[in-house]
Amino acid sequence: MMKKHLVTCSVIVVLLIILKLNTASSVITKPAPKIVTPVTYVVPNLVTNTNTTEATNDYSFANEALPVNASVYRKLQTSLKKHNYKNIQSNILHAKALKLFPIIEPILKAYGIPEDFKYLPLVESGLHEGTSPKGAAGLWQFMPGTARNYGLKVNHKVDERKNIEKSTIAACRYINDLYDEFNSWTLAAAAYNNGSVKLERAINSQSEDNYFMMKLNRETGNYVYSILAMKEIIVKPRKYGYSEYYTYVKFQPKNFIAYN
User: Fold this and answer.
1) Which family is annotated (predicted)?
2) What Å distances lie between residue 234 and 100, 103, 108, 178, 230, CA to CA?
3) Taking the alpha carbons of 109, 233, 239, 249 in that order, is the dihedral positive or negative?
């Protein structure tokens, strides 16, 4: 009887040892948490709302604010430097604004296009006139095929791409189509430069639809920054070294009709 009791006790002890070993092996020892020191940067020209800790800036395109980001800031400052008087050495951009904006503004308004798009032709045709090596022509630098698609006559006798009012109407229709496709004025501007097919492909491949966060070819990647720079130097000429102020009177033609 004693022998049987000892066997039973031995079995219980063995089972307890096995159970303890299994329990110990099932416990996962977590590594000590890694201490990460937060990295902060100060972006000049960005201001902090005094009521909150949210950083904001005063740059925007078509009421779409630029991200508060050091890389975005550097690109914008590079574009501003490129377009200041020291590099341009001419008031031609302000002279063109004086001539063109009174014609362009009411047409943009009639088609529901944000006013910031009036700076786009200064980027497109800028300091140069005529036809580009690729065949784009006029204020809005339409290619022949796109111009015809939006109602402009382009042939050996007539080239309505060089008609300010007609080409602006065509541009408005085109920009509205791009906005309908991308649901963003910034992306619409980028697509105006790069084409909707290429931009859509970039959005899908990068899983990113914020223009300022995307990796695009150099020309398109700088395009909206150039528009923003153009806006800055026209609105604040003396800040960027331009000595003269150009003023113009906004007007809305009484009988202007927007044709869809």
Assistant:
1) Belongs to the transglycosylase Slt family.
2) 13, 16, 18, 26, 6
3) negative
Task: Report how far residue 62's alpha carbon sits from residue 147's, in angstroms, rounded to the nearest whole number.
Answer: 24
- Distance CA(251)–CA(202), nearest Å, equals 39
pTM (two decimals):
0.73
Cite the beta strand spans of the chain per DSSP E: 47-48, 55-56, 60-61, 64-65
- Pair type for strands 55-56 and 64-65: unpaired
Count of CB atoms situated within 10 Å of the CB of 229: 24
The tokens for 205 are 């491949």
Give, as one character, the DSSP assignment of residue 48.
Answer: E
What domains sit in the chain, N to C, each tagged with a CATH number? 68-240 (1.10.530.10)
Count of Cβ atoms closer than 10 Å to residue 12 Cβ: 10
Which residue, chain included where needed, has tokens 């006559």?
153
Q: Which amino acid is at 14?
A: V
Torsion of Cα atoms, 144 then 192 then 115 then 95, to 10°:
-60
Give CA angle at 168 (166, 174), nearest 5°. Answer: 105
Token pair, residue 179, equals 């906005």
Q: What is the pLDDT of residue 134?
A: 84
Distance in angstroms (rounded) separating the CA atoms of residues 61 and 186: 7
pLDDT tens-digit series, residues 7-31:
455 555 555 555 555 544 444 443 4
Length of the chain in terms of residues written: 260
Taking a C-beta distance cutoff of 8 angstroms, is the pair 226, 116 a contact?
Answer: no
User: Which range has the worst mean pLDDT, 164-173, 203-212, 243-252?
Assistant: 243-252
- Predicted confidence band of residue 41 (pLDDT cuts 50, 70, 90): very low
